[in-house]
Amino acid sequence: MLRFYGYFKESVVESRLENHRVHQVLIYYFLEDKSIMIIEPKQSNSGIPQGAFLKRQMVLKSDGMTPFMPTDFCVGLDIGIHGRSIRITDADEYTRQFFEVSLSTQRK
Question: The pTM is what?
Answer without folding.
Answer: 0.83
